[in-house]
Write a structure and sequence with these properties.
heterodimer, A: about 220 residues, mainly alpha, 11 helices, B: about 500 residues, Cytochrome C Oxidase, Chain A, 17 helices, about 70% helix, about 0% strand, binds protoporphyrin IX containing FE, binds copper (II) ion
Chain lengths: ~220, ~500
Amino acid sequence: MIAALARPQVGFRVLGALYLLLAAPPLRTSLEATMSGHMLVQIPLLAAIGFVACRLLPVARQERLLDAGGGAVPYVVLVVFASTWWMLPRALDDALASPLVEAAKFISLPLLVGLPLALAWRRLGPIGRGFVWTNFISMLAVLGWLYIAAPVRVCNSYLVDQQESAGWLMVKLALLLFAGWLASLFVGGGGNPALSTAEQVAPPPAPSRDCGPERN
Amino acid sequence: MATYTYEHIPDQGAKAGVLAYLATSAVVLLLMMVFGLLMRLEQAQWISIGAIRFYELMTLHGAGMVGIAAIAGASIMWHFLRQYVDLSSRIFVANLVLFLVGVVMILGSVLLGHFHGAWTFLYPLPGKSMGLWSPGAAALFMGGLLVIGVGFLLLHLDIARALVARYGNFSRALGWPQLFGHDDGKAPPPTVVASAMVTVVNVIGLVVGASILAMMLVNLYVPEFDIDPLLAKGMIYFFGHIFINATIYMAVIGVYEILPRYTQRPWKSNKVFLASWTASTLMVMFIFPHHLLMDFAFPKWMLIMGHIIGYLNTVPILVVTGYGALMIVYRSGIRWDMGSKLLFLSLFGWAAGAMPAFIDGTITVNYVMHNTLWVPGHFHTYLLLGMVTMVFGFMYYLGKPSHEHDDHLIDRIAFWLFTSSVLGFTMSFLYSGKESVARRYAAHLPEWVPYDRIASVFAVLVIASALVFIGRFFARIGLARHDYQRAPVARSVAA
Ligand code: HEM
Ligand SMILES: [Cu+2]
């Protein structure tokens, strides 16, 4: 299954099926019935489809797209704005009220969030990725708090208790993601597991400046 | 048992970035010390600047001192860690730039906007100034902290990247295979272990700190978004406690690296050493409730946890480091110069400063002692005689003209002056605390004033001796760039 997914043809077909499933009325209405389902399941899944689809593209194509957009940073900015938009209660209401906005949501999340994120991710080094993660996690937690603490009902379409449970879910999700991200630093061996530490320690990088240790 | 042999790594000169960090710290340190003196003089009723000025100075002093402690600590860590892993100079400099931007924002907020809600920005004070400062001033202050936090986050992410690139993951950088398995003597050096610990705890602390800052910024402009004050306090102290503690865990790297060069004995990352750092990695995150012992509304288990972990965490790293230093020095015939003397003194200062906290961390004592000058007595001891003294030791080490150079008389006098006046200064705080003098009071009762006057005199002497140290550092800053042997060889080795 996993191996098959790695083949682009199969992968695209699976993604397409998932996309249609999400768009088809039964799943769509049941997810949109609750705020949590709408914000924390449907929207992330739509973005994820864009992300995975981008990964299935040939590397050369991805690189070309990346260069066309001017590197990783503009894409990250695009992702931030596009995803923030769909976090606004207003946007959720509009999507439920107007088929046009709903269509915009189904198109923009994969294309303007998932795809550019996947493109940028390639070029973001470990620092950039860590920065995106830590920022995303703290923003998610703060957003969750906003939903919990909001003094008024923020959506026309959802009740206050929905709002609160969505908020708590976001806070919990943020904690979980943070724990997971930290744990990922503790396991695995991205580096040189073969080299034992002591061997690496021995030679300090040669001093880059002229005067040797013998000065004086 | 693994055996450890001393592996000589030649003394390296400091990169320009490290010197920029140290120069910034030195200048801000002196300025903040003068602000501290002004506060003391106000309490001593020798000057009268008024309560508002006092609290403005207190806000700047707190934020400024914590900030430069972190900057100075980071420079020590970076200088030595760079010799084991590949760190990015650009990120290092970016952190300093962001720090300076944050400092300007904070200065503007306090001096122009008259914000004076203390560096701990406890909710809901920043938003409830009763007209003494605007929401804009409070936002500028918290924004400044946020900018500084972003800089440190980047720095730690870079360190995390470099550690993972070299050691594979954090478990290995913390020496877990050797700690929990067979100690093959190949655990990462102390510098790496300490840097890994600081990185883990600071990243967690910074993310929590950034979250509460963002929440309070929203609340400032849309007060309807309520924050639970206890939650806010918990988050702020979680971040604040970790951040200030991390400064000493970074600075102690200077001790681990420099003292062994004097006696050519290795600083061992043996099981005990590794265990103490791993234990503190966890404990430093669960100890913050010791700031909340008076908040009866907090769940009881949290307070008890703060009490117990507060006791436990006083011990491991401190004892292991103190014992390690004694082993390095004992019968080594070490040549004492300003660098080694200051580093050795700093361990004493750290230990001495931890004791009052240990006492105050006891719930029953805390009811009486908390919010008295006992607390500033504790943290000024470990920060001034511990943390800042490590930084001075590092500065002397970097600037030492040659390994055989003898210290000037004036430096040697300044050393003893500094030691005794810091002790006098912090003892006055502690004694006032014992007499129940409240902390953070601009105006003191007549009975309290004598202690304030004694403390002011000591503060002047502290500043005078710090001036000598810092003046010497700036005079030698050109030498500090070069690679040459600095540590004099101990007699036992030379013989
Ligand atoms: C000559 C040196 C110093 C003097 C004269 C001084 C003086 C003072 C005074 C008078 C206070 C207010 C005490 C009160 O609550 O009434 C204070 C608070 C404080 N000091 Fe210092 N200090 C000095 C050095 C340092 C250093 C080196 C650090 C840290 C590296 C530091 C960190 C702090 C902090 C964090 C506070 C708490 C501020 C608050 O309560 O919000 N100080 N200091
Ligand atoms: Cu604390």
